[in-house]
Amino acid sequence: MSYDKGQATEEFIRWSESYDRCILQWLIFGPSHRALIRRIRKMVGDRPARVLDVGCGTGLFACRLRSEMPNVQVFGVDLVAEMLEKGRDRWHRHRGQVFPVQGDSERLPFASGVFDVVTCSNSFHHYPRQERAVQEMARVLRPGGRLMIVDGYRDRPWGWFIFDVCVAAVEGDIHHASARRFRELMQAAGLGSIAQYRHRGPAPFLLNEGVASPGSTVVPAPHFTSSVVREPAAVVR
Asked: Between residues 33 and 218, which one has the greater pLDDT?
């Protein structure tokens, strides 16, 4: 049986109880968040920018980014309401600048071409239709904006054992894309200047980065036709 959104939802509802305390925060989430923030700071500097974090969970990365880059406005979207709810206190501390939204990576609840940066950190292997998710992330980028996806690096023996054997044994029929597959997905979504950064360690990860070309043509999603962000009501009040 192939992995689907129902399985992903059930898994993350269970995980929401311990997500902020799990060992993965130290092993891979923290290091990958720091790598993303370094890349965003190098791109944006001190300029105001609008960032979307897809698969934001309890808001750890979104709020870390906002704390370190105070001119950045961050939207976080997650499929699972329970994950967003567990970040209630965190969202409240950053109210007005960090916006949690419940939504699907395959149908992002935002208009086309409105974000300077879109990030996705350590959740991509849970997406059943990865090509559709990348297309949606590319759709909401402004021309020249950047998509940054971090996921486990499984192209070497240690990474293969960690992610394709150990993690898959726990999480089911998930799929960690290879470096080559990430390049293919980004190219198919119309992104250019693709760069990939390999980070070694006990849980190696790959940061994939692509740029929305000013000349690229992205078909607008049928669920959005406006060219401005719809300011969403936060699901956590």
From this structure: 33
